[in-house]
Amino acid sequence: MSRYGYSSLESASTVTSNQNISLGPLDRDIAFPSNAQDTISAIRWSPTANHLAAASWDGKVYIYDASTPTNIRGVAMISTSANTPFLDCDFSKDGTQVAAGGADANLHVLDAASGATAIFSGHTKPIKAVRFVNISAASGAPIAVTGSWDNTIRYWDLRVPTAAITINCGERVYGMDTNDGGERTLVAATADKKLHVIDLRKPDSGAWDVKEARESPLNYQTKAVAVSRDGTRYAVGSIEGRASVQSVVEGDTRTRNLTWKCHRDKPEPIQGGNRTQQQTKCFAINAAAFLPTSHAILATGGSDGTFQFWNVDTHTRTKMFPNVGGSVTSIGFSYDGQYFAYAIGYDWAQGYLGNVHEHPRKLMLHAVAKAEIGGK
User: Fold this and answer.
1) Which domains are seen in the chain, by residue range?
2) What pLDDT does residue 14 have?
3) CB contact at 8 A, 310 and 328
4) H or E segment at 86?
5) Is the pTM of the predicted complex or chain greater than 0.85?
């Protein structure tokens, strides 16, 4: 057991990493057009079609039609006047809008039909996370939620120019996600190692406030947050190469909480004084994503240059993939789970000195085989 009281993958009674499992193939993966001039910070699939949005440090969001994988086309783009970096993006639930936020502290929303982009201002520092949510109390209006380094979460009714609700989280928002399956759960991770769990089904006097601020089960800064499609569980990943899956409802016996080590090199012996010690290199988990068709399958991507698939119900790693040549900065499954996209770039883990021109910048498409997610 970990010191937080959760089962740990290091424990023999919980999860096995399947060390003998063969590495998944990448030779048939397809590259998206190389439009981005800098690292892609975030990718998001449309919930209705094989369209992908990719936010980049070059100040643009690229939108691709991947309906025909052998002929991926760029179909639209969002840009800022000052080319300030975009840090996150998301599709609306009907796939007709794309929202993006970043260093200019504004929310940018592209309407696919008209091609027009609306800008919403209110945050005072960069927007780190953007998600569309369904809320019945909003009378069917599209609601975008933003999490910022100004310590707030804001809800935006896109029919009006100012934020409808502002929630003070007390610290910077480092990651946020909600379930795609309907109105239920939103989880935001903040710099003070808190996880803010919001129940979207129970607006309090018309406001969607924080239901609970929990202590993270991880020791260090959270970088990745993912919520399962049914909204019953969430996953978080940290800079220490450790992940955790937790139940939204504490004490729910249907979901077993797990915390485990991953995205780490094998221990190497080093000489320390008169004895040999073991040293393990730990890499940040930059991204996490649940398979839309299953709340049990989770993918993680890290600074070690790999992405891995896990079954959190059977407590096994179902597939590990070879090193892709650079840090995996963002990942995501398509709406039907047939495809998996991953971005390769520089994640600033080595500071500005590590941001060399030769660092690879790619966006790739991987066809998901049933065997890779534990199927036959």
Assistant:
1) 1-28+241-376 (2.130.10.10)
2) 45
3) no
4) strand 86-91
5) yes
